[in-house]
Protein 1
Amino acid sequence: MKRAANESMVLMRRRRDEAGIAGSGLRGEAFALPELDWSSWTLQADEEWVRLTDGGSLPDQGWKIHCSSEESVAQAVLETVSRFCHERSATFKYVPTVGRLAWRNSKQAPAEAAAKFITLYPRPEQLEEWLVELHQQIGDVAAPSILGDLRWRGGPLHVRYGGFRLRKVLGSDGRLVPAILGPENRLVPDVRGTAFHPPAWVELPSFLVVQRDELRAADPEGLADYDFESAIAMTAAGGTYRAVRRVDGVRVILKEARPFIGVASGEATARLSHESRILEQLIDVEGAVTKVASFTAGGHAFLVLRAVEGDTLNRILYSQNPLISADSSVAERVAYRDRVLALMRRVSRIVHRLHAKGLVHGDLHPGNVIIGGGDRPVIIDFEAASDSRDVISEAAVIGVHGYAAPATIRGTKRDEYALAAMTLNAFVPLSFLHDLDTGLLGVHLAAAREAFRLDDGLCASLHAALDVWHARSIENADDPVPGPADLNRAAGPHEIDDLTRRVRKGLSACIDGYAARAEVVRPAGAVWLMPADGAPWLDELSALQATGGLSRDERLLLMSSVGRLISSAARPSLTFGLLGGLASHVELLAGQKSPGVEALVCRLRDSLAETDDLGLRDGLAGIGLSLLAHEVRSSSPSTVRAVDEISRRLSNEVVSVDTWLPGLLDGLAGIAVFHIAYARERGCAASLARARALLVQALGRCVSTPDGRLEVRDGSRTLPTLADGSAGLGLAIILYLAEVGDPELERALPGIERACSAELVIHAGLFDGRAGMMLFLVELARSERGSGETSQIVLRHAQHLRWSAVRTPEGITFPARDLERTATGLAHGAAGVLIGLDATSRLLRGGDALASLPDYLSLCAGGR
């Protein structure tokens, strides 16, 4: 939401305090602006940035100034920079909390986010003056360098040319990437590389030429001994590069560590120096990566390793797991099992050689094992290694979620735990859920035993190694886990009803726990579809209402939330679309027969001039669907005109796979859904033709796998999911085919069905998991365009939801998108799973059909 800055800052601080966020997780203590008059400024805040502007407009692109900072001095840096901007009414943005900055300054941060704390947007004539003055005011503070930027005089300020507002274009890897306008007035990728390389057509100001040349002249020794070929990975902590040693042509890997990064977990250069010393002890250990050299250059530490040809164990195993296929034979599963066990025996032998040296690896996971020719493993990344006799504090223990033992487990037992987790995850890669519910260990072992015919001795040893929590019981919770013999069969009506009942109980308990609070702050990082501002838990309440009704207290809470929504929705909104924007407000209030709906519809009609986005989630397609539904209910001439205007705009826009994803929520399929709905209401053949053209383009971005799955290509991966993948595209195709037959489009459905038929699905949720695939398959079965097995596949998915079901004292919930906590929302949480279960139950009982995801959202919002 946009608000006057002073009001917004007070509200942000109050909500963070009430949520108990200070000092925790990625949020941490909020940074504070100096006590100045910010009343004329507008503030926009989200998880990543707080943006402040004092009117005026910015160009679309240009030279921007980034400021980095080490966490301990960041508050002082922000005060200096914000005063500078306040004096000049200059737009700027900053990272909102200490915790978030610590993440950007950590090894885990992606290169494009690494070390960026504050961003300023000078005009060309202001750039040098601002750099000089800010450098003088800030001084020489501890600050990491920013990848891809030109550092100014060795201080915290950096410069790069790029976009001032977010525009996107299709990149070379098939993903949408940030874009800037090129010399031919066409959008081109806004490249954010590892070195300072402004676009070729942009003239470098003379003062930046001087700075660049000085840095080049100071190229440190050491790096000159190697010819760099490519970057393997880039993070805030540094890069990992492929290179060739010039003197003898030996292929090597260079690991870089940058100063002032990763302070919370041990500064990056110190960690790399530690790894170098560990590798010197392993020079004669077969299967451990070999150290070649180490040196320091320009303040950055480098460790040179002998190159290992091959791929990570993680990529090999996941890509070849038979459970990701639409179907696989017993022979294929047994062959895969035998290879996994042979690989893990070899990895285990290497680990035991480390233990014989008195060392513990400390961070074993499949990404740290390279599989070379002949399935020979090599273990890499010894930053966390330690003497097995050392007593390490719990705070110093690191590891990858799902493979790291609890901090109370010490010494070689940490590696033994990781080996067992790697073995189980090779079959059913869901061990990261065991922290949420220890009972899932038994579920996953039973599933692996049945699917891959694991022997009882192996399962017993894995259970003994991984059951470090001793299966903590959850008081008053019935065991939702079926017996081993039931895991891979299709669920029946009784099982679906039982699971649905428990999910509803879990959602109701979650709502009841917060209903008494006057001010509710949602958990950080979660994604909701229904409007959040002033009206919490609408996702959950809407899903419960649509799938079985509400209790008296829940109805009262919904009525209260609707009232608060009406009072808050008049404020300017960042988005207007159907998923979380103003259009979802309209659908929700219409379903509650609220008298405030007309005012919101008027505001929604007015929003068209403010909306550039075309998609379903945040743009014209979503607004159009909401207004179409209102038009049917009210026959308002103003709404009819607004819908016609949306149709004209969507028809005149150049929408193609060059600038748009193919998916449902943010892509071509979602725009096609509006054209289909418009054609149905207006009898407009031209709109149907436009929808078909978009769907054909979207199919052109799909790829067929060897086993016949049709999935959306997204860079190096393919997606079968509802939000961005082929399941959402399939829903749009089904909706189109309900209006007119089309053999070409119909031929895509079997491949999409196969894509949604895999037994192994990591996420359970609606947008990116099993529940969304269930929704597509249900509609495919209803359309009678599926295979003879479609209904059985849906029921098998319903049974496999138990692989992710997390018990609570009251019922069942499901993991969030990050798989490290639970979530209740529609997008990625339990409310979305309830959608899939309800759709499946309707299929079994012959209930009313739901034509598409937008229809379902209208239902969940009370639209019908």
Note: The longest strand covers residues 226-235.
Protein 2
Amino acid sequence: MAAPAEPRYLLAWLLLFAGSGCAALIYEIVWFQLLQLVIGSSAVSLGLLLAAFMGGLCLGSAALPRLVSARLHPLRVYALLELGIGVLGIAALFGVPLIGRLYLAGPGAGFAGTVFRGVVAAVCLLPPTVLMGGSLPAIARWVQTTPRGISWLGLLYGANIAGAVIGCLGAGFYLLRVFDMAVATYAAAAINFTVALLAFVLCARTEYTPTQDETPAPRRLSTSRTLVYITIGLSGLTALGAEVVWTRLLSLMLGATVYTFSIILGIFLLGLWAGASAGSFLARRAAGDARLTLGVCQILLAAAIAWTAFTLAYALPYWPIEPTLSTSPWFTFDLDLTRCLRAIFPATLLWGASFPLALAGAAAGGEDPARLTGETYAANTAGSIAGALLFSLILIPAIGTGNSERLLLWLAAAAGAAALASAAVSITKRIAWTAAAVLLATALAATISDVPWQVTAYGRRVAPVLRGLDADLKPAEPLFVGEGRNASIAITQRGDQRFFYVSGKPEASSAPLDMRLQRMMGHLPALFHPAPRSVLVVGFGAGVTAGSFVLYPEVQHIVICELEPLIPPASGKYFARENYNVLDDPRTRVIYDDARHFVYTSSEKYDVITTDPIHPWVKGTSTLYSKEYYELVKDRLNPGGVVAQWLPIYESDEETVKTELATFFSVFPSGTVWSNFLNGDGYDLVLIGRADDSPIPVDALESRLNQPAYARIRASLGETGFPSTLDLLASYAGRGPDLAQWLTGAQINEDLNLRLQYLAGLGLNSTRSPQIYRDILAYRKFPEGLLTGSAERINALAALLGRPARTF
């Protein structure tokens, strides 16, 4: 096909492809964050983004050999592709916000809305990813379909993945943590442009002898080659399916921070690189036995999947690790890296080795190496798309992670059987190998067990809990454990108290401390509004906050926006008494969507909006703590409307809390802070922002609560430690102008940087909440002009606020 490429340039090729992979992973992370702000971060939206991204890779790899002349120098084609990727990468940074404005004109819900989200994802991602997918087939024309040439292609594929490891960890731990999406994009584009320039230089210094016939005659796929493509397609399916399943489980055990996801993906890619390098060596040595080697690789993969399943169920949950003992987040990251290596590295090695072996197994002398590479890559990528979508959207919610792992094992065995069926060995040996694969898969599937339910409940603290080392977490009885599209949840009971967990983190309970916070989230904004009629509750949890609004006679509409469909029915069943059966109230309407997306696309306005998301150290949640989100919420308020925002100070350090407060006050300058207490110290806060700065009349508030129609509201407050209006108002902890000095220099969490998720991910093991609360109280003054009323009541309130500590 072409003159053999010169070995002296192989190192340069490897460096170029590493640069391409590095830039591609940076783009992937940035584009997903950008587009989640437009089409949401639900499992469906993420699935559409992944399908669009990988679909572009698939299309590019399949189309380039057919559309680009073989007479063009491969390095020139590659350089032009890199230039195009860099230009489109920068264009996406500015184009996605513009497309977001157009998106508002389309359907926001239902099947039509889902299709429209897919169209937006495709428009934004297909152009650059098609170019990315064409890069390996483009350079493939400079090699021959010999064992040596196939080995080189495998090494280039591995170099691309090695660069992706650097891009993944570099973006997650540095570029996006220190800078923002714009800087990360410019860095990736600079890599693209540098790679393109070097490719042009190499092009000028090297000769290329193209084939005389630039349009090879169509060839008929042989049965053996078809089986190889089926094998590599199944390999891609199991790889991405396993990544979805194992990321779900590992994020429970390690804590679902942005750093955890970077580590998991980084280790996954590292294994693919090491495997691709080893597979390239095997492809060169195996030659005629490549299909047999590919089949053995898939059978070993079934064993590796069983190993990972065993490790996740029987080993990692029992590691003697107490996260809060770590004084440095970087030590925790080191532990997480070690645990991920042990769990998933063996399987990723075998997936990485599969691609060069598939190339060798499908190769035929004298054919177009670009077409061979493109078809193999397209088959692998198509399988990857299917695996990611099937397991995330259908299989995990339907059959759970344990059964999903069993299915992955069987699929790997099926891939092995397909490869062995294509091997150039006797029919007797094929039958024997296939039978061995079936027997091995059957035996291995029997060893797979679900992870302990305590992992779903206690997450990263499961080890000390299982060992009984935590006096506050006594043995509990599971009432409900479920795995949904977006999250895993558990509801447990200890004594007469019930606890609700999402993705390994406690989110709500019937314990006094949590009940007080949940009721404050509802009653404070409802009472600060003279007559709330329409309410939006972001995050259902146990339903206690939403249920608080059921008691108000003026309320006519309660809209609840919840991301995970498992949560409302489960909490509605087990917390019905605490949430006043809010789901059965005719005024209640439940929307299943990412709250940021719902608020962004809905034109409805409300008198009260409460936002009670999961802790900001959880990846993706910081979009509900951003300046732009608060601006959206403020815009959705009716005149006189009130916003309530939950803000945790536990599992947080000073910098994180300052960023949270400064961001809220940047939109609500006169916002106020109200505190939940734990033994006199702060535990979490409620931030209140209002559409206007009118005073809150304490006398009128007291009179309102004394009305017969408000008797249940008074009782609801009394149950949680607020026997009087003054006791409720005495939870006041400060306001924006008074805290301005303390917040000097605090970073603002904006959509472009999502700074909070990086800060919070570093501070989640902090035990500084008592000191943080005392620092906030040091700036507290009596809110003159905010709380007004008779001298008697104001003096009584001032006396309560003047107490050095407040306990219940």
Note: The mean pLDDT is 91.
Protein 3
Amino acid sequence: MIFPLLLLFAGSGCAALIYEIVWFQLLQLVIGSSAVSLGLLLAAYMGGLCGGSLLLPRFVSLRHHPVRVYALLEAGIGGLGLLALFTVPLAGRMYILGPAQGLGGLILRGLVAAVCLLPPTLLMGASLPALARWIETTPRGVSWLGYLYSANIAGAVTGCLVAGFYLLRVYDMAVATYAAAALNFAVALVSFGLSARIPHKAAAAPGPPVRAARAAVIYFVIAISGLSALGAEVVWTRLLSLLLGATVYTFSIILAVFLIGLWAGSGAGSYLSRRLSDPAAALAACQILLAIAIGWTAYTLAHSLPFWPVDPWLSTDPWFNFELDLMRCFWAIFPATLLWGASFPLALASAAAPGEDPGRLSGEVYAANTAGSIVGALAFSLALIPAAGTNGSEQMLIGAAAIAAIAAAMVLPGRLRIAGIAIAALLAGGLIFTVTDVPWQVIAYGRRMAPILRGAQIYDQNNPTAVLYRGEGINSSILIAERAGQRHFYVSGKAEASTAPLDMRLERMMGHVPALVSQKPASVLVVGFGAGVTAGSFVPYQEVESIVICELEPLIPPASTQYFGKQNNWVASDRRTRIVYDDARHYIFTSRDRFDVITTDPIHPWVKGTSTLYSKEYYELVKEHLNPGGVVAQWLPIYDSDLETVKTELATFFEVFPEGTIWTNYVNGDGYDLVLLGQASPMPISVDQMQQRLDRPDYTAVSASLSEVGFHSAVEFLATYAGRASDLRPLLTDAQINGDWNMRLQYLAGLGLNSMATPQIYRTILSYRRFPEGLLTGTGGRMDALRTLLPAMAKGRVAPGVRQ
């Protein structure tokens, strides 16, 4: 009867992975997506797994049928999974009543994560020890414990791929939850049926726990193994997302490959555990080989994958690139994940004692592994990567594998012990010095690295690139470089800003468009510091009293101030400026402040998680935080996108701001970025009044800021008008709306980033543009100039005379 149980446990793993993805997305909408918030979510989720595995053997009697107990656990998980669809939004409504920042805010975030995640994850963690009690702690029986663990991971692989590539791409988080809960209930029903057919002999009253003499050492080894596994997942996900592009699909692929390795390794380890006289020797060998495998991954990430011979830009088909990314991930990380997977069943076999409660054995080994995983994930994401970088972190991972190997060797007899300790120490000492940083181009160009390097070979010979700054922070990797007299700012494999004319014009427009449309921009909220140029565009406005800047990565403001201070008017040190280091969505959600201008310049929507700053609910939050007459600006890129993605972005914004308008940053008749503008109370824009403001003595610095990027008059500035919601209604009739519950944009954008359709998208949008009668008003001369200039600039016949 073991094979039906393996299938059932695979179903449990599938549902658990779907829940994990959904719950993390839901709770990030409440407590934010900063590294600290993610750490709290991870600690609560894995802490529940750890606690459940320890508590069940202590509080559930051996008299109960193990398969029936397992069925009850699965039914409970399904019920709590459905309940989460209601409890998480309710927690969000309660959450905003408490403190948002400081120690109180941190405690409140942890409390929300614990209340929402601990109940179901405690039941999840209890499922392995519950089912394990049907198996005896003989060598053969212990190997079946390993196979159960392997089956659970096989299900997790399925859940990861089904959720990431189908359920959430096609449907939403509610449907994904229903699917997971249905799977739980199906597993529970079948398990109840099986329990009637599987004999169970009620155990006598338990005596003192039976443990192997070396169990404590084995628990330490498997804890360090868990620490290195989750630490490596954090480090390698950071680096692989740079190389492959941080789409939602990339994260699903990385996680799937990691889990496939654990599944294959745990199956192999289970097979070996019943055939070896001393599985502890194999466990020690696994840790020694892990040091080599970690060194291999570090080498491939720095010297192989960045120069992969197959260019991902050769095809616009996203599925071709998914297959390519899958192969690249296997090449880099599969060997190490195989060994981590094998470690768990070998640890079970090494720690087992005849007559021991199998539930207690599996629960304690699982708890030790999970506790180590929690420490590893939190330590590397919150402390070690910011302190030592990914390079130093990989060296520490090799050291951790060596420590686990030495500890495992300590329980071996005689010469085997000495040999194991010596090999682990010498090997790790040598491997640590082979680890090098990934090339700086990975941080700068990311997934575009191969084609950019090929195209830049001749150019760079005459215009060499000088790296001015390189840093790895708690959330992002950043790089600032200078080439041909222009400075470029990169974040996690994407160009975010530069002093190039085209970029400077967009960065200034993101500030000046809403500031000049607003009648009195006294209070300003800027989402994303970047190079600081957008925030710095508000500095010349004397009526601006406060500038609040939300930035997720603490490294960015000081680095940008050092290298872009002149361009951003030293905004970080302006007395009116306050920088909030938090997820902007979380800050707005919890803030009671209102603003005259809110300008949002997030990372490209194909980056996982960014779609929350392009959702209908986000725009509603922004609108609620506008003062009467307030204005909101939103960056919308049309490069690295397809038409369906852009239509969703436009339709979602116009759903909340039905009188919204579009303003374009163009070059030679083509646009690459758009600025969306919405108003709390839509008002006409007077070209005469705008010019009068620009002519005032107190606006001299504002006029100079505009002139530097080619706008010498209000007419030239307003000639960037590219359309409004009413014009584009026919185009957007079939557009999908991006909402918090479907995150539709990140799935569309992840499929369309190789489309290379920028010119066509821009011309399609302009084809719907009509002269904005009633929106732009003014005297005859200026209006005539606008009527002439709008079509001419769109066709590239007139270009702003950009001056640095």
Note: The mean pLDDT is 91.
Protein 4
Amino acid sequence: MKDLEAKTLPTELYLPFVQSLFKNRGTLWTGMVVHILSCAIIYATTGAEFYILMIAVFVTVFAYRIYWFRQFDMIDHSQLSKSEIEGWESRYVHGAAITAFVLGIGSAYAVLVLRDMLAAFMCIAVTMASMVSIVGRNYGSARAVALQTIGCCLPLVLACLLTGELYLALISLFLIPFGLTTQSMAKGVREFLYENVLASREMTRIADQLDIALSTMTHALIMLDADGRVQVINRRACELLELPDADELKGAAFITVLRRSGKSLSDDLLRKIGQLSAGQAGKTLLCLKETVYLEFSLSHRTDGGVVMLFEDVSARVAAEEKILHLVRYDTLTGLPTRGYFAELATRYLRETEADLFAAFVIFDVDGFKHVNDMQGHVVGDRLLAAIADRLVHEAGDEIIVGRLVGDEFVIFATGRDRSALEARINAIQAEIQGSYRVDRLDLTVFVNGGGVILEGHDFDMEAWQIKADLALNDAKSVGNGTLTMFRPEMDARYVAEQRLKADLRTAIEQGDLTVVYQPMYRPDGSEMECCEALVRWSHPERGFIGPNIFIPMAESMGLISEITRFVLDRACADCVSWQNEMSVSVNLSIHDLRGGKIVALVADILERYKLDPTRLHLEVTESCFMDEPVVVSATLGRLRASGVTIAIDDFGTGFSSLSYLDSLPIDIVKIDRAFVRDIGTEPRRLKLLSGIVHLSRELDLKIVIEGVETFEQLELVKKHKFADLVQGYIFSPPIPANAIAELSQKTTSGRRLAGRQNRRDKGVEPRAFGTTG
């Protein structure tokens, strides 16, 4: 059994035991009255003044006890120390013990002195009744129970034994187990109280924790019973719904509680929340105000009630809306992005009449990259924003406008008449072209367009965009603000182009391309000094495919560098076998010059074939310098420093700038065939060619004239001493490597190529490749 004495109990458990002693004052008053009446009756029947004395003692002790009872009521029990609690227990025990001993002595006096049966019977009856009440009133103090039991029983037992009467002696013996039973019962009640106190403390602790949890949880919580009345509502719920104190709401009907909300909930919101509370809806997002959102979720209880959780998700909704806006709308122009554009177009068709034509048109800003390169990306971005604004204005509310990528815009329009729809598209394209004022710059913009017009019910974003792209490619090939609508034959052409691309990839991977060489002779034809390596592709089904077709294709596929690697390798391998230290010239694209990987590639190939770097010429076009002048110049500088000769190809055909001739690391100028074609009949063209040659000579550059095909052209070149070398059909078309070897054997040996001699004339000795840059 657990030791429940004051010394072993903690203060918080000891206090409830002592508090139980000062309760149930009704029995105290009843006992007092019974004690006085019994003494009065005995006095009346026996005349024994001893019982008058007992009445006086009872009254005095009762007054003493009532006084301390009231004092106990007036103090703050929570502030009592353990020693103070023990003091209050002692005050109670003193009064109770005196009362019990007075009862016991009165009974003993009746048995031993008066020897009056009525008096003895009454005293014993009152004493026994008092002992029964000991359990109910005094279980909280083991000391009180023990002293009262002894006080009631001991005097009576001694008196019965002293009388010498057998039956009284037997009666006294029965009092002993009665007293022990009283103590045992009191102990059982005390242990029961102890368990209850522990349980009460645990319940209080759990209740406090639950209250803290409910008060501090971020979610709002409302618990309803089966009748829809509020059982539990936490502080967060009151805050979110602007309700009064939670204690005022318990037991109220939930719908009544909602009507007391400071949010002024609409009838529709009340209905939706009511459906939630009735279990008719699951997780629900409700908008209380323009920017206030609450998300409700519900769980059912086994007793028919529900637990409703909700939280303020306004910040999350705002963030989601912001993210959704970023996903749906282009940040630069504010136009719908591709995905949202498709969604808008599909929704528009679903909500309108079925029998309509629909137009899907892509607009591409012609030469936009040039604007970015020349004026900077800030100007480019502002130009795109200005074009978007004009496009939206011209399109109006009935046409959906979006931005695909980069400088591509898209519109979606519908109409009953196909011709009218196409005319509307032409008008829009015409309006968005023209002059734009951006950052004090006047920019003239051409916009190419490609579109498709089909029946609206067949709309499919992916399929229609492919068709529009095919039409746009046609328009861009013409340029200058061309608008082309899709035609069925474009599909077949697209399929053929894709098949050709696949075949080109295979040809590159399997090494099916070939290299031919076109010689460069001295104008008098006395010596072949260099050959230009030209790549060729013989398709197994379509025959010869011109480089003007597959080279741009390879560039768009990202394969041009693979072709360059192949041609460089083959050209250097063939050049080693040629006599007279003849040179070979290889073309590079802008893709080859980005990143500088070409430097390592050239070094590796030259090292592999032990080819003198001065025998390798690398040709670049003017457009390479226009695209990325700094990067290209740096890469060519590293190549030239290794001993390789650098030539500018097709000079005069692009965005020509004579400043290139002086500022860039070049050794040779190859003048395009366009300047030679009519020099015999057009004096102006002859003067232009003469000017370019003169300037190049002044800069100490070697000159190669391309495309010389007639004796008349050759004679003029020789007469005016325009060229150091001549390349063209007048001497030879492109021929295989073995044919070049045969021709080289016929030329005079022992003379180095013009590019190498030119470098020595300038005092620049070629260095081993790869030692610089």
Note: Residues 520-761 form a domain with the TIM Barrel fold (CATH 3.20.20.450).
